[in-house]
Amino acid sequence: MRDEEMKALNAFQDNAGEEKIDVSHKLKIGIIGTGWIAGDHMTSYLHMPDAEVVAGADLIPGKAEAFFERFGMKGVRTYPDHKSMLEAEELDAVSICTYNAAHAQCAIDALNKGVNVLLEKPMCVTLEEAVAIRKAEKASGKVLSIGFQPRFDANMKKIKEICESGVLGKIYYIQTGGGRRRGIPTPFGTSFIEKETGGIGALGDIGCYSLDMVLNAIGYPKPLTVTGYRSDFFGKNPKTYPFHPEYAEKFGVDDFAAAFIRLEGGIILDFRIAWAMNLDTPGDTIIMGTEGSLRIPSTECWNGTVGGPMTLYHEVAGSQVETVIPVIEDNGPSLFDRKIRTFMDACKNGTKAPVPTDQILYNQAILDGIAKSAELGREIEITIPE
């Protein structure tokens, strides 16, 4: 075992309360889509002594072979598409790392084949796709988890603990979002920005994270209505791409999105997200309640944690006070390793997915609602099939 693999394994085993990893039962893993994010999945699987990556698939000839060669992986079988891999291999689980528009079909096919699925975010592009994935999951009885690794950050967990503690009272208004001054993701081509492959842009790529941070903290109430807005001013400007001005013609998604969402329980969610804007941040996250409010500093670029110490505004004995909640320094395994580890444990133990679709279905419904409302130019109701 390589030194970095042993170090990661020890980080898990040395933590108090962590169970030892059963290496006698190895999961056979396949990777669907061997692009950018697949590298993080592969790195984490290499840290797991009970994972055996045996196959990979990619539509681009030679890409899967080059991917595994880069990681020094010998004997991994490669396929030109996910269907041929699922037919030929006896897999325990797959990581789906394709572009957004392919998420749904790959997930459904894997579930129908009786394979556990770790599906990268966003769950898919539309609510209709999310419902179809959920139906396939329920019919299969397999584990399907969505790739929201920020959930495993200690500071994100603290936000949820604060909301659940009751110190905020009844939560009635949330402002959240984030983004980048310049950060349209095109270092590896145009799959993120083309309509046929990306489907949605900043809205799905980092907007899903921002929504999950607050929705998970308050128990994922059902979304009821949404008024959405999307724009593409930067994405369609050739000046945005100094070395590839032709990318502007290919841009078919959003680089900025905003929305006003009504949630069950009388909660209002004010949301905005950006890949590019003439601003450093669209604002901190604020969770307002009848007994107190929480301010969560934004990050310069969405990175899965908080941008600094959080502040709780409340009253003590009639005095208005502020309590600073320091940033928790977490020196354990990486968030990606935790995402992979918890998924594998659920597969091996037959337990609930660490990031379950019954929650992320609501996340996807909001993303889809924003896109549809923006196209119609008016508020719409969100209808989620039972």
Reported CATH architecture of the largest domain:
2-Layer Sandwich
Query: What spatial order of strands do you see in the largest sheet?
Result: 14-13-12-11-7-10-9-8-15
Q: Shape, please? A: globular
Cα end-to-end separation: 47 Å
The pLDDT mean sits at 94
CATH class category of the largest domain: Alpha Beta
By DSSP, the count of extended strands is 15
Order of helices and strands: HEHEHEHEHEHEHEHHHEHEEEEEEHHE
Task: Determine Rg (CA atoms, Å).
Answer: 21 Å
Which residues sit in consecutive blocks of at least 5 with pLDDT less than 50? 1-17
Q: What does this 3D model show about the protein?
A:
The chain is 34% helix and 23% strand. A hairpin with a 2-residue loop joins strand 13 (310-316) and strand 14. The model is unreliable at 1-17 (pLDDT under 50). The chain is globular, with a radius of gyration of 21 Å. It folds into 2 domains: 3-150 and 334-355, NAD(P)-binding Rossmann-like Domain (Rossmann fold, 3-Layer(aba) Sandwich), CATH 3.40.50.720; 151-332 and 364-381, Dihydrodipicolinate Reductase, domain 2. It is built from 13 helices and 15 strands.
Relevant terms:
6-stranded parallel beta sheet; single chain; 13 helices; 15 strands; 386 residues; 9-stranded mixed beta sheet; Dihydrodipicolinate Reductase, domain 2; alpha/beta; globular
Outline:
This protein is α/β, with parallel strands linked by helices and 386 residues long. The chain is 34% helix and 23% strand.
List the helices and strands and how they pair.
Layout: H1 3-14, E1 27-32, H2 36-46, E2 51-57, H3 63-70, E3 77-79, H4 82-88, E4 93-96, H5 103-112, E5 116-120, H6 127-140, E6 144-147, H7 154-165, E7 171-179, H8 195-198, H9 202-205, H10 207-217, E8 223-231, H11 247-250, E9 256-263, E10 267-274, E11 285-289, E12 292-296, E13 310-316, E14 319-325, H12 335-349, H13 357-376, E15 380-381
Parallel strand pairs: 1-2, 1-4, 2-3, 4-5, 5-6, 7-10
Antiparallel strand pairs: 7-11, 8-9, 8-15, 9-10, 11-12, 12-13, 13-14
Helix pairs in contact: 2-12, 5-6, 6-13, 7-10, 10-13
